[in-house]
Every structure is written in structure tokens, then in C-alpha cells.
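WARN retry 2 of 3 for item q-0093 after timeout on previous attempt; input resubmitted unchanged.
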Amino acid sequence: MAIDYKKHFPVMLTEVLEALNPEDDKLYVDATFGNGGYSEAILQKANCKVIALDRDNTVIPRANELKKQYGSRFEFRLGEFGDFNNLVSEDIDGAVFDIGVSSMQLDEAKRGFSFTKEAPLDMRMSNTGTSAADLVNNLSETELADILFNYGEEKKSRQIAKKIVEARAKKPIETTTELANIIYQVIKRSFNQAVDPATRSFQALRIAVNDELLELQNGLIKSALRLKSGGRLVVVDFHSLEDRIVKTFFKNNTDKAVHVSKYCLSGTTSTGNAMFGFASKAIVPQAQELELNNRSRSAKLRYAIKK
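OK item q-0093 returned
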């Protein structure tokens, strides 16, 4: 099934552009290309160049569309952003990360990211390597419980892991809905629930399958090293585990800045020997975006400016 790229909205696009501050003749990296919303907006904002990265080879047709439209101003490189230093050898003026699963991956049922669609239990962003089904059917009960608790912050992780092991003893767990129904045996569904009971467990397995937290840590460090003086690192994340990593990274690598406004300029006075001269506090979506784009409800944006 062809993907309708136009129906996917880049989260916090206005705030991302404000934080990144694209300028003519400069070089920016969209480290999580997805449907190309950030890349295209940056290219429209300034007469600059964008290098886009993504581990998911299914986005290549969309990248080719932008290449045809913007020519030498746009370049796509296939790979994981945790390998940023090898994918991007150039010094850059800014980078933006949109962390986690993309709307396209959620909407394409066969990818197995969503418990609302019947599909093989996959969840691999790169379409290669160990799948969620592999983990669910082969890890020990303790290992499964640890994944659900550590990556999904699921309080009933041990009960769910036990049910999974009991179910797979009868037959392999092969689909998203099979797994979701096992989870519902432990945490009952109700119509007035704000969050589906399967959400945390599916998040945990997705993070484990794609090694997302280590990828994020590596991506932050390696992209920051590629930034020029005055360069900006912008990160949009969607849950507490990611945000804790981003917040800690910026805090540990930022001088105490004189200004704390999100409109802070790169020339802000700072003291110390840290990498960044300024790091923002968390910025959240505006009410209008929350009404139009449900995915943005848990988003937080943080950015930092290199000294």
C-alpha cells in the first residue's frame, strides 16, 4: 500500500524551525528523516543544504522526491543516527532529531509497531535483525519482565511476562493482536482509559528491538561533536526515558548561561569549559497543534547552542 506522505504532520515544526534557525549557505542534518517534513521545511526556510539520515529504507522514495525538487541542496544517507560521525563527516551548522517511531511506521500495519492493527510482530525500524517476535518467543520470563519494566515503565511487567511465557508454550506468539490480547489478560481494557494497556509493553519491545536509548545517546554525542561554533542541536522526544537522556546530556555539557529564554542568541555570555553555551528548558506543543495532531500530545523539544 502506498503511503500518503501529505497526511503526516511534523511535530512542533514551528518550534523546531525557531530553535534551529536555518540560514542561507549553511549545512543542516535531519537525523530522523521519516516523511521528510523537517527536511523540506528547512530547505524552504533558507537557501541552505540538508543532509537527511534514516535507518528505514522504505523512506528512500520520499527522499528521491526531495532530491528531484531541491537538487544539490538535499542529500539522503541511509543509516542509524547513532553512527552519526561516520554518516556525516562534514562540520555542520545544526541538527534536528525526532526520536522514536514515525507516524508512517505506525500507520503501515505490516511493520508491526501498532497493537491496533493485525500484523506480524516485527517492530524493526531498519527491517533487519532481531524482531519483536524473536524477543517475545525466545527470551526468558525474567528477561522479558526486565524489558517491559525498564523500557516501558510497566508496573505489571512480571505478570505480563508470565502470561507471555504461558501463551508461547502452547504456540508461538506471531502477531500484534495476539500479544495485545495476552497483555489485556493482565490489565483489563475499558472504554474510558486515556492510554491503552498495551501501550507501555509495545513501547518497551520497540525500544529493545531497535536499541533506541543507546542510539539516542550515541546520536547526541556524535552530532554535537560535528557542530560548528554557534551550531544548534534540536531534539524532539516523546516519553520520559528519552527526555531524561536528552535533558541530562544538555545539562552535563552546558555552561551556566546568563539568559534562559528560548529566544536566546548564540552569542549569550557563559562561563566554564562545557561544549554548549546555552541549553533550553523543555518546550511543549501549543494548544492549536494538540488539537490538530494527536501524536504531539506527549512531545517535548529541547535544544542547545554550541560555544
